């Protein structure tokens, strides 16, 4: 189980290779977000779905990791043009390709879904995870999913563990809550920056 990896006195977030709190954002360059650190943080986040403990969450996790792969492939193909996510998108679109850009769009949707669900849940101590995730799904991914995909994701929401069991796996409750709030605030900021950028003309294909 995931809990075995947690260091003594630490939380599950300590097992992440990279946290969203450590992703560089260059305000002097229009809030440019560093590609490598962002992708590492996104990969780390997907391990949260393992803690949720249901195979029903596999499509959610695999979808996000598939989009990470698309972005990383573009980064590896043109490293100098892809140091920030914004530059990666601009430079890819110049080549008339949009595979990584589309991957980023879907990855941001997945991150926003996770961020809203966990933020809501942390803020409402009486709310079960299934309710938080269902609400977040309706706001983020559901409007973009086909009628074939919606039932797959809806099944994942219904398969959420009980709140108390989920948080118990993450570490000491007070510490988990404090670290999650900081982590989710950093993730929310990055999601908002990327959503705004992806809505601009220069990110359209």
Automatic annotation (TrEMBL):
The keyword Transport applies. GO terms for cellular component: cytosol; membrane. Keywords: Transport. SUPFAM superfamilies: Glycolipid transfer protein, GLTP. PROSITE patterns: EF_HAND_1 (PS00018). It comes from the Eukaryota. Residues 33-171 form the Glycolipid transfer protein domain. Gene3D superfamilies: Glycolipid transfer protein. This is Glycolipid transfer protein domain-containing protein.
